[in-house]
Amino acid sequence: MARKIPQINAGSMADIAFLLLIFFLVTTTMDVDTGIMRQLPPPLDPNQIIPRIKERNIMNILVSKSDRLLVNKKMGNIKTLKNDVIDFMSIHHDDPAYPEVTLKSIDYIGDVYTTKGIVSLKNDRGTSYDMYIQVQNELAAAFKELRDRLSMQKFGRKYDKLINEDYIDAINKAIPVRVSEAEPEDVGGN
Amino acid sequence: MSRFKKQVSKEVPAISTSSLPDIIFMLLFFFMVTTVMRETTLIVKTKLPEATEVQKLEKKSLVSYIYIGPPVQSKIYGTESRIQLNDHFAVVDDIQEFVVLEREAREEADRKFLTTSLKVNGETKMGVVTDVKQELRKASAFKINYSTRRKTVKKD
What we know:
The complex is a heterodimer. Chain A is built from four helices and eight strands. By secondary structure, chain A is of the alpha/beta class. In chain A, the strands form two sheets. A five-stranded mixed β-sheet of chain A has the order 4-3-2-7-8, covered by helices on one side. Chain A has a two-stranded antiparallel ribbon with strand order 5-6. In chain A, a hairpin with a 3-residue loop joins strand 5 and strand 6 (110-115). In chain A, helix 2 packs parallel to helix 3 and helix 3 packs across helix 4 (165-174). The longest helix of chain A is centred in the last third of the chain and has 27 residues, at 129-155. Chain A starts with 12 loop residues before the first helix and ends in a 9-residue tail after the last strand. The relative contact order of chain A is 0.14. Chain B is of the alpha/beta class. Chain B has helices at 20-34, 74-77, 95-104, 126-138, and strands at 50-51, 55-56, 63-69, 82-85, 88-90, 115-120, 143-147, 149-150. In chain B, 26% of the residues are buried. The mean pLDDT of chain B is 83. Strand 1 (34-39) of chain A pairs antiparallel with strand 7 (143-147) of chain B.
C-alpha cells in the first residue's frame, strides 16, 4: 500500500522569501556610476616638434593652488567661465580678438564655419580636485551648449536628443571638444 | 416568505495570503537582478565632487576603478591622500602594472573599450591625480572617467 506523502506546509515560504528579500535590499546599491568622460592624449614623444599655435587661438585657463582662476591672464570667475568659453569658441568673422575661423564642408551639415580656438587648461599640483572638476564641468557645459545650438539650427533638435549616428558624428566634427591640458609642471610652488 | 433567501454573511471574509509568497518572490527577483555587490572594500574616503554635465558609465564590466582619497583609518595611515587599487594601498608606480593586469582580465575584443574610472575625493590635491593621469597615459589607458555625483540643478 502506497503511503500518502503529507503535504508540505508552505506557510513559512513567505518568511523565507522575506528573509532573502531583506538581505538583497540591504546589500543592493542602486547608484549608477556617473562622471565626466575624457580622453587622455598619448604620451609626448620627446623628438616631436610642438606646433606653434597663434596666441589669438588659445584661451588660457589657469587654476591656481588656492583654487582661483586666471583666464587669459585676467582674474576669472567660475560662474562666468561657461559663457566666456562659449563666447570664445563661437564664430566671429574677421575679429582679431577671437580665434580664426575656417569654412569646412561636413557631411549632412554642408558648409559650416568652424573655429580654430583651443581651450588650454592648466592646473597647479596644489589645486583641489573639486575645483578642477568644477572647471571641467563648466567646459563640458560650454561645449554642450555650442553643440546644442548647431544641432538646433541644422536638425531642429538638441544634441543629446539626436538619434541618427551620422548626425551626431557630423556635429562632433563641426564642434570638437578642444580642451588641451598642459603638461604638468609646478606653477605655483608649494 | 421567499424560498431563495440569500445567505448574506455579516463577516468580512479573510484575505487570502496564499499569493503573498509569490509577491515577495517577485520583489526578491527584482532585487536579485538589479543588485551589484561591492567588489572592493574601500580603505580610502571618496567623497565625490558634484557636477552637472555627467554621463552614465555603461558596461560596468569594462570599467576599472582607481580610488584616491584620505585613508579611512586616519589614526594609523594619516590624512594624506593615498591611492587604492583593488583592496590595498598603492603608489603611483603600481598603476601601469594594475592597468596591464586589468587589461589581461578582459577579453581581447573588449580591451580597447576599457575605461578607467577615477574616484577621487573632492578635497584631494591635483598633484597626485596628475601623477596618476601621467601613468595612465604611459600605460595607454586613454579613456578615463572622472567619477562625479549628479548635481541637482537649481532653478534660477
